[in-house]
Design the sequence.
């Protein structure tokens, strides 16, 4: 069968199981768009190519599959860079397809020509330029294999316009991936394995650090069995949230910079840390010199380059989390760890009393209340997509996720503007799920043009803007570390409810706590998207906090009664 | 200083990926040589990097994550044969030429080009040996110099070979131990 390169691309994507892709047309990708029109693929027209990459990312994270984004050459491709980097840092399998100028003029600075493979080399797992129609199918199939295998990541395929236009013979069987033959490393090191088993069976104060890798590997069941067998308390990384039910008594919650005090204290007191599918990010460890000094460490990790990168470990088990856990389980002796678990409960101490949820209503609207109410109203069942900053940390603290892939957030890169487009992608992946965006007034303004995409695609997403009139997390740092010099953080925003109306979306504005629940209920009852502008307390801070580079033991604790203090202000 | 060997796909852009990776890890490359192997589709690199063992581990593991890198191995601790090649153009007049020839003999180097005012000396060996020759040549006036950078190979039965397709024989299985 003779097809054009553009038709081959659409046929290949269809056969790979792609239903939707997110993109924006332009000159160098026009042949593909012409073929798209004749295919069964559903193209979602975004408002900015960054949005396309975040949508593909959100699609991948919600579904566990691969997200596809498309853009033209030059500025279309460069607009994708932030989204690609976001996917790279969070190991998300995204395939980006970009148009490129004709191979005959490559390197001549032709109109809208840019070396996008050069630009994205350090932020993709792999990238490649295709200049011949007959190479398109195999290359795209290889891109899918690379994006999803091992530690996943984004792959960019740059296809020249003449390759899209040229005709070539197409036969699926002749385009099987032909990737370079790599050395097969035998990761099963018996010495390391035996050492890990010995550590597990002798620890008095063990603690699991559960990361994103558990979700990526689909190891939830094995992980739960592992936890139950050894009776290990579990601390979560931000991206690990959801891999083990929040309601489980062994789940302590999030660790790190804004982790609860008892979680960080437990890490500092543990005699064994079992890190599963996490990478000891600096937001998790704080100062490495004082990190978990009492603990031996086991690291279960698929990426060999992560072993001993930040934290030196005593036993490294390189491999897929599920495979390694399944191999470990039969060797683990069941322990009670009662005294240790009781001790952690004691560590909670006054934290529960300090918790904002336990304090009486003083008429002010706090983000923590809003997010906790969203959790209650959605019965913890929604897919929540967050941006980066204060609202992101409050979400992690006050929305309790019991199921995997229900919190989608930009962790590693910390990308503002991620939430809204990523939620659109998540909704396409899980059309029957309730999807909530929780976003700050700053990040929302970075990609709010995607509201038009929501309307054009007629999808149902609920958007909660945690609007405090500041770039809140930066303001908090200025309050704590720069003597309250609020440079460039006070932020003017449009009337978000009116803005939503202008897009054709229902908008609400909430200023009082009593209005929160009724508004959430009415928003949930609507079959269409609703945007709610929550005007929350302006100078509220996220507690506890470990300052950047400080020891995990030195936390800035929640004030004993923040509400009384703020309430008495004039 | 750490020495790594990598087998890579012999195609455009791979050198860029390798050097870009080292730059990203903030590892300074002292020398990097690359050339085809007996299989022209595969090239072999010797990378000498300014880093410690931990940095070398990261470089090795990160290199192997690149799709086009078939194998990367830190061989710093192994019994190695190391070679560097240098061409040194040195001023030579009638008077000092005999003295120069004696030195060249001592270093087991050889003269590969003779001109009225200068000689080109070819020398191969360890970096130390070449540095040594360079020191003694300096007083004569070194006009130009080109060095190949280091190539390294593990000695004896310690084989470091690119992975081969399983169908191509069981020999890889048997030599597999040395690849670990």
Sequence:
């Amino acid at each position: 069968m003779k097809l054009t390169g553009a038709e081959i691309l659409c046929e290949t994507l269809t056969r790979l199981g792609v239903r939707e892709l997110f993109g924006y047309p332009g000159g160098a990708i026009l042949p593909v768009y012409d073929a798209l029109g004749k295919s069964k693929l559903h193209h979602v027209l975004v408002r900015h190519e960054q949005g396309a990459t975040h949508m593909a990312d959100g699609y991948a994270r919600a579904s566990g599959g691969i997200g596809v984004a498309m853009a033209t050459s030059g500025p279309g491709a460069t607009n994708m860079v932030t989204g690609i980097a976001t996917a790279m840092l969070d190991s998300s399998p995204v395939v980006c397809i970009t148009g490129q100028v004709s191979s005959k003029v490559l390197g001549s600075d032709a109109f809208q020509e840019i070396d996008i493979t050069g630009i994205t080399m350090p932020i993709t797992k792999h990238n490649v330029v295709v200049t011949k129609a007959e190479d398109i199918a195999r290359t795209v199939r290889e891109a899918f294999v690379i994006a999803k295998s091992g530690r996943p990541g984004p792959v960019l395929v740059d296809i020249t316009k003449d390759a899209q236009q040229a005709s070539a013979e197409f036969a699926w069987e002749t385009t099987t991936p032909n990737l370079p033959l790599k050395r097969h490393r035998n990761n099963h090191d018996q010495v390391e394995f035996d050492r890990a088993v010995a550590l597990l069976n002798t620890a008095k104060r063990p603690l699991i650090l559960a990361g994103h890798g558990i979700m990526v590997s689909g190891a939830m069941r094995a992980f739960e069995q592992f936890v139950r067998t050894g009776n290990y308390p579990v601390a979560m990384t931000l991206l690990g949230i959801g891999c083990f039910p929040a309601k489980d008594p062994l789940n302590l919650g999030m660790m790190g910079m804004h982790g609860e005090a008892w979680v960080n204290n437990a890490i500092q007191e543990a005699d064994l840390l079992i890190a599963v599918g996490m990478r000891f990010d600096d937001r998790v460890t704080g100062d490495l010199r004082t990190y978990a000094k009492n603990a031996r460490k086991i690291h279960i990790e698929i990426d060999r380059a992560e072993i001993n990168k930040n934290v030196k470990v005593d036993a490294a088990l390189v491999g897929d989390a599920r495979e390694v856990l399944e191999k470990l389980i039969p060797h683990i002796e069941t322990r009670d760890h009662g005294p240790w678990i009781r001790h952690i409960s004691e560590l909670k101490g006054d934290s529960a009393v300090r918790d904002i949820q336990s304090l009486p209503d003083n008429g002010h609207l706090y983000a923590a209340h809003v997010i906790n109410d969203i959790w209650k109203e959605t019965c913890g069942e929604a897919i929540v997509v967050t941006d980066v900053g204060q609202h992101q940390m409050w979400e992690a603290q006050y929305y309790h996720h019991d199921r995997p892939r229900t919190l989608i957030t930009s962790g590693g890169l910390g990308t503002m503007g991620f939430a809204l487009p990523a939620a659109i992608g998540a909704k396409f992946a899980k059309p029957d799920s309730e999807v909530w965006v929780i976003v700050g007034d700053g990040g929302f303004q970075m990609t709010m043009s995607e509201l038009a995409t929501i309307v054009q695609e007629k999808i149902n997403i609920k958007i909660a803007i945690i609007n405090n009139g500041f770039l809140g997390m930066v303001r908090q740092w200025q309050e704590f570390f720069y003597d309250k010099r609020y440079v460039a953080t006070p932020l003017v925003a449009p009337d978000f409810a009116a803005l939503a109306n202008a897009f054709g979306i229902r908008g609400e504005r909430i200023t009082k706590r009593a209005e929160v629940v009724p508004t959430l209920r009415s928003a949930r009852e609507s079959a269409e998207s609703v945007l709610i502008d929550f005007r929350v307390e302006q100078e509220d801070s996220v507690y506890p906090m470990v300052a950047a580079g400080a020891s995990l033991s030195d936390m800035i604790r929640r004030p004993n009664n923040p509400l009384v203090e703020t309430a008495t202000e004039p | 200083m750490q020495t790594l060997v990598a087998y890579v796909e012999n195609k455009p852009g791979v050198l860029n990926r390798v050097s870009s990776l080292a730059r990203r890890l903030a590892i300074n490359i002292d020398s990097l040589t690359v050339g085809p192997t007996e299989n022209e589709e595969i090239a072999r690199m010797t990378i000498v990097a300014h880093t410690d063992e931990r940095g070398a581990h990261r470089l090795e593991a990160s290199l192997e994550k690149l799709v086009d890198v078939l194998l990367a191995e830190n061989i710093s601790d192994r019994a190695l044969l190391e070679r560097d090649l240098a061409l040194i153009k040195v001023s030579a007049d009638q008077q000092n030429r005999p003295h120069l020839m004696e030195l060249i003999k001592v270093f087991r180097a050889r003269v590969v080009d003779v001109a009225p005012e200068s000689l080109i000396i070819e020398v191969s060996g360890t970096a130390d040996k070449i540095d040594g020759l360079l020191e003694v040549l300096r007083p004569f006036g070194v006009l130009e110099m080109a060095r190949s950078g280091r190539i390294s190979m593990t000695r004896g039965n310690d084989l470091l070979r690119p992975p081969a397709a399983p169908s191509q024989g069981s020999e890889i299985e048997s030599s597999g131990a040395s690849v670990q």
About this structure: Chain B is about 30% helix and 35% strand. Chain B has two domains: 2-78, 81-151. The longest strand of chain B covers residues 80-91. Residues 2-78 of chain B form a domain with the Alpha-Beta Plaits fold (CATH 3.30.70.260).
